[in-house]
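Escalation from tier 1.

The customer reports that the assembly of two entities below gives different structure tokens on two consecutive runs. Tier 1 could not reproduce it. I'm attaching the input and our single run for tier 2 to review.
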Amino acid sequence: MRQFLRGSGRALGVGAGYLPIAASFGALAGHAGLSRLQTVAMSLFVYAGAAQFAALEGLRHQLPWLGILGVVLLINARHVPMSLSCRMLFRRFDRGAQAFLFHGLTDEAFALDNAGHPEPLPYYLGVHVCCWASWIMGTAVGLEIGTKLPARWLSFALPALFLSLLGDWILRHRSRRLIPLVLMGTALVLAAQWLLGSFGLLLAIVGVSGLGGALYARPPVVRSPA
Amino acid sequence: MLLAGAALGTYLMRSTALWITDAPFEKRWLEYVPLGVLLAMSIGGVGGLALSPTLMVACAAATLVVVASTWLHLPLILRVFLGCLVFGLLR
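Tier 1 run:
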């Protein structure tokens, strides 16, 4: 239980960031023609922010469902390399636990899972349950009260979380040999996003990972905390 | 149909590691996926908010505060709180 609470506590920042986004989704879903049940079901089972908003946009423009589905899957394709990367972390657990953890593998949960040394299963369950519950609660709140949450303050929560975890990753792997990869990776992400939008982010993730694999014969070394 | 397809398709992609065989995917590049995701999401997230000169200043200041608080090893929730506070005050 202690590890579960530790994981949940670690995910509180994500939860705070999810609330206004999920509430916006809940508030907009009604306008796109989704019922309350469909809206909550989408947050429960699809559980992917950008893809859910893209689906709403498609529904609002009355696009064919197959086209909307294609866009949703294209946006979520970045989860394939993330899943493969988490394989080493999760394979200590039984398949049922892995099946549950993989459902909650959002960008933010992935970042938290990979932000430190390997942890016991309850820790990861705490992270994933806290993130998932925040997303579902945010959707329900959005259905009830619309977009009245203080987005002005909370809109920087997820970028702040990713910046923090990026800083943690760099500090944990501090090594001069990683500097070229971080610089080239930054340039690649900027170029890919500018040229291709959200699809560019998928290419950038694969590109940075490929660059790392090509540049270095050994995996990144994790330093002990100072 | 759309909901079922989106849920199933997303889950299949997220659980790729569960149902794919070991050998071809035990590659070095997978060690660098976390860096790729963190870089893409950090830059994409900040870039997505910096849509006007005022927001750019707010984003830059909040980014600096988060980087400094990370350097100082402050707790994660505090770093997120400080970033949000500076961004909310300046935007």
